[in-house]
Amino acid sequence: MIEGKTLTANRIDTLGQSFYFFMSLLVAGVVVYGFSQTINEGLIHPSSPRPLILYFHAPIFAGWVVFFLAQSALIRTSNVRLHRQVGWFGLAFGLAMPFLGIATAIAMARFNRQHGSPNEAEFLIVLLFDMIAFATAFGLAFYWRTKPEFHRRLMLIATCSLAGAAFARFHTFFVPHNWFYAGVDVLILFGVTRDLIVTKRIHSVYLYGLPAMMLGQIVAMHTYLGASPVWLRIAHRLLG
Q: Is 97 exposed, middle or buried (CB count within 10 Å of its CB: 0-12, 13-18, 19+)?
């Protein structure tokens, strides 16, 4: 009996220590699979030249995922000092992401509209929300960088918020049309499940962060699918 309890405790301890590293691998897998469905025709061999900014956005977006994976690996291997030193590079990385993401979203919406895509103004709200969600979670993660229990959960939420674009590219057998945010929420729910197993409670970052994220997703999707006239006026001004 004691041996069984010890084995269970060791498994829980391993889950606690390795969870964020394994999540970084999972997010990387989601991104690789999702974008592998469209990268050839959308970026490498497009039917018509894409906006130049897309060729900056793609490697920087991918670079963030690699950065998150590397930082998680440093913590997993107890290289905390190097993790903190590299984190200052991550600050510049994280600050650039929302600006580049918004600029790319606008440029691609203009491009797609010119090439016959009818709902670019409506969908722009979804892309902007993703950048707001990332910037909010990342900003709080940096603010609480000296509090690991807050920092690592917020960094996971920030990175997961970027995965919506990858889930949107999944085959509809795996992710039904317009249900890409469900994939994002499932990733974060893994964090909630980990907390319940390891600490028997949900950390406040998830307790408040996940409902806030889901509320924002609902508003963004409702605005997009309902073609809100107020939003359309704003979007058309942004797109010119």
A: buried
